Amino acid sequence: MAKSTPKNPKLWAATKAAAKQKFDVYPCVPLNSLAVTPEGLATCEELQDSLAQGIRKFVLAYDIGTDHLVWSKLVQVHTFDEAPTVEMYKKTGFSLVCTPGHSWVVERELSTKGKPGPKGTPGIRFLDRQLILTENLNTHMDLVWCGRPLAGSGFEGKSWHKHQDWVSAVLEMTPDQREVFLASAIIYDGCDQGESAIRDGRTFGFTQKNLNHYYAAVLAAFCNGYYVSMYQKTEDIKGATLIRGKRTHNTQNLHVRPALTQPVWCPETEHGTWVMLQDKVVCVTGNSAYANAWAAKEYKKKGGTWGGADNRVKKK
Fold first, then answer.
1. Which of 163, 252, 266, 280 is placed for a possible disulfide with 288 were both Cys, Cβ 3.0 to 4.6 Å?
2. Neighbours of 114 (CB within 10 A)
3. Around Cβ 127, how many Cβ atoms within 10 Å?
4. What does the pLDDT profile of the chain (316 residues) look like in tens digits?
5. How many Cα neighbours within 13 Å face the side chain of 261?
6. Rounded to an integer, what is the distance from CA 198 to the centroid of its chain?
7. Rg (Cα) of the chain, in Å, rounded?
8. Which residues of 169-200 are buried (b: 16+ CB within 10 A; e: fewer)?
9. For residues 308 and 5, is the Cβ–Cβ distance under 8 A?
10. Coil, helix or strand for 277?
11. How far is residue 69's CA from residue 274's CA, in Å, rounded to a whole number?
12. Are 177 and 160 contacting, i.e. CB atoms less than 8 angstroms apart?
C-alpha cells in the first residue's frame, strides 16, 4: 500500500506522542469497518492509497444542519496501531465496536424556556443535534443512525445488465429510482413483515447470496432513510432487516463494556461525519479530528515535511 512518510521520523514520533498525551483519546473504529464512496465500499487502506496518490475521494457522510446524507470530501485518514476499544451493545442483538473517544451524532428535543410545568407553557421546542463522545452517552439520547435521502444525479438504465456493479449504480440513483430498485429487491428476494411499532414504520426482510446485490439493496434502503440491521443467515447467505420510518436509535438499555486493544482508523471529512459499515451495522458516525490531526499540524508547524514518490501529483 502506498503511504506518505514523514521526512523527519523523530519529529513525527515526538508530535504523535505529544498528541496522545494531550488528548488521551483515539476517536476511531476497528480496521474491519468500511466507508462508502461513490464507487462503493472502501477500506482504510484503499482511502489511504487514494490520498497518497493525490486523489481526494468523496465519502458518504451526514450533514448535521440539514439532516441529509451527503457526499463529503475526504480530508485525512487517521490510524492508531494500538488503541483501547469498547463494545456498545443491547441485549436485543445490536452491537458495534469503537474507542471511548469516538463521537456519535446525537439528537435531543430541547426547549427555549426550560422544562414545561404541569400548568405552564411548553415553550418553543426544537431538535438539537451534536457530536457526543461514546464515554459521554447517557440513556436519554437518540443516536442519529441514518439521514434523510441522499440526492443522486440519476441512473441511466438503458444498457444495464444483471452482473454489473449495482452498489455504485444505487449510489448515483435519485431517491425515487432507489425506492423502485429496493421494491424490486424485496419483491423477488425479500419479505414484507408489515407495520412496525417502532416509529410507525414498515419492516422488510431481505436475503441474498450475491454480495454485490446484497450491499446494493442494503445501501438503497440506508440512502433513502431506512434503519438497516444486517445478519449472517447461513454460511453463504446474508440477511438484513430494513425499517422504513426509523432513523434514530435510542440509548435506553445501551451497554458499554471493554473490548480489545487493537489497530483502529477513522476518515476525516469536511462535514465532521461519515457513514460506517461494521459487521451487522451501517450507520452515521463522527469523525476523527483530534490527536492525529493535531499531531500533523504540530509536525508541519515545527518544520516537518512529507516524502515518498507515491504522494506527489504528477502534472501533465
1. 266
2. 10
3. 11
4. 333 466 888 887 788 777 666 655 567 899 999 999 999 999 999 999 999 999 889 999 999 989 999 999 998 898 888 889 999 999 877 899 999 889 999 988 776 555 555 555 556 667 788 888 888 898 888 999 999 999 999 998 888 999 999 999 999 999 999 999 999 999 999 999 888 665 567 999 999 999 999 999 999 999 999 999 999 999 999 999 999 989 998 898 899 999 999 999 999 898 989 999 999 999 999 986 555 556 666 777 888 886 643 322 222 2
5. 4
6. 22
7. 21
8. bbbebebebbbebbeebbeebbeeeeebeeee
9. yes
10. strand
11. 9
12. no
Looking from the CA of 250 toward its CB, the CA atoms found within 13 Å total: 8
- Distance, in Å, from the CA atom of 17 to the CA atom of 24, rounded to the nearest integer, reads 10
The pLDDT assigned to 266 comes to: 92
C-alpha cell of residue 163 = 452482473
* Domains defined for the chain, CATH in brackets: 26-114+122-148+251-294 (2.170.16.10), 149-246 (3.10.28.10)
- Cα separations in angstroms, 167 against 42, 46, 214, 267, 313: 12, 17, 9, 20, 29
Amino acid symbol at 157: G
Alpha helices in the chain, H assignment, sequence order: 9-23, 44-52, 166-172, 175-189, 211-223, 291-301
Residue 135 backbone class (left: φ over 0; alpha: ψ -120 to 50; beta: rest)? alpha
Of 90, 103, 182, 83, nearest in space to 144 by CA: 103
Cell of 23: 488528548
> What b/e readout covers 254-284, taking b as 16+ CB neighbours within 10 angstroms?
beeeebeebebbbbbbebbbbbbbbebbbbb
List CB contacts of 134: < 8 A, sequence separation 6 or more: 86, 88, 98, 99, 100, 101, 102, 103, 104, 256
Half-sphere exposure of 216 (CA within 13 A, CB side): 27
- Number of residues in the chain: 316
The answer for residues whose C-beta is within 8 angstroms of residue 269's C-beta and 6 or more apart is 59, 61, 72, 73, 74, 75, 287
